[in-house]
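Handoff note, outgoing to incoming analyst
You'll be picking up this chain. Sequence as last confirmed:
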Amino acid sequence: MSIDLTADEKVRYARHLILPQVGESGQKMIKSSSVLVVGAGGLGSPVLMYLAAAGVGRIGIIDDDKVDMTNLQRQIIHSTSSVGELKTESAKKRIHQINPEIVVELFDSRLTIENAEEIISKFDIIVDGTDNFATRYTISDCCEILGKPWVFGSIHRFEGQVSVFNLNGSPNYRDLFPKAPPPELAPNCAEAGVLGVLPGIVGSFQANEVLKIILKMDGILDYELLLIDTQTMNIRKLRYSMNKDREKVTELSEEAISCALSLDEEESLDASHNSENMKEISPLEYVEKLKNGWKPFFLDVRRESEEKIVSLPNTSLRIDHTDIPSRIDEIPKDREIVIYCRSGARSAMVANFLKLSGNYPMDVYNLSGGIHLWSSTIDSSVPRY
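Most recent structure output, in case you need it:
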């Protein structure tokens, strides 16, 4: 079906029409596109508002939550008068205030393996505005099955990440993050806090990527993870590649999602053993190699509060595992690396992340069992906290 711009639309989108990278043909592409935004919260707010303003013809919103007063510090699509209202309904009203010509489809539910394929199949591009790993892995798996590109975004305190997955065969989320950290190691905004403007910044980058995908522009963030630190104002990109050993997702299942979501550190440790991107080394093996003159970079990825309890001998540096993407330059690329934490879960995740980044040609080891195994096999005076 031929898509035309009305006289009013030519006025509304005049600043787009004069851009050589957009023009009238590009604006027609935007108008004919459809985007599903999963979550109408902190990230979804700027994404929805900017895509509506840009003229995306059909926008889907899926969210089962209601607007709460605590949302208003960062979820700018909602207002005080929206408190108690479904976020989908509140967002739709604001979208139509911005651009009444946009078709808005609402799904007042959570995205689950039961409804994901039916909903996602209706849209060209998917945007992740979630704050939990179960939904994120569902998006990733479903988009891989259906061949849909999706735009990832995440926020934590002052830092954010953005990338594009599954675009024309590019890597998917599981290539970069095969397994999620345990829930207690990945606090949400309610637990860890977030600077109010951060979702606006990250969400704006996500909306930008959506438009670049629609317009088939260069410079899309596939194969790259954008790292944003609003406290230091450092913005950088980390390249990653496809994990060729990963088995492709062919169907959605509770088992596949739950396998990615470790309920505690011990489960996460067991699952991490399956990764072929990193190596495991026991405390006994590590100490024996040190006696023979081995001098690896010994990285502690626990929290500062844990460091005050105990640190292992010869620790080179401590970086909280959540800060690794923004401080990755502090980790040498010309030395072998051994990473440890309390029980081996967080360190396994970091080791796998470093190897998948493609920037660490030397061996990267996870100290299996972490401080717990060190205490039971090397030095019993080391506290098991």
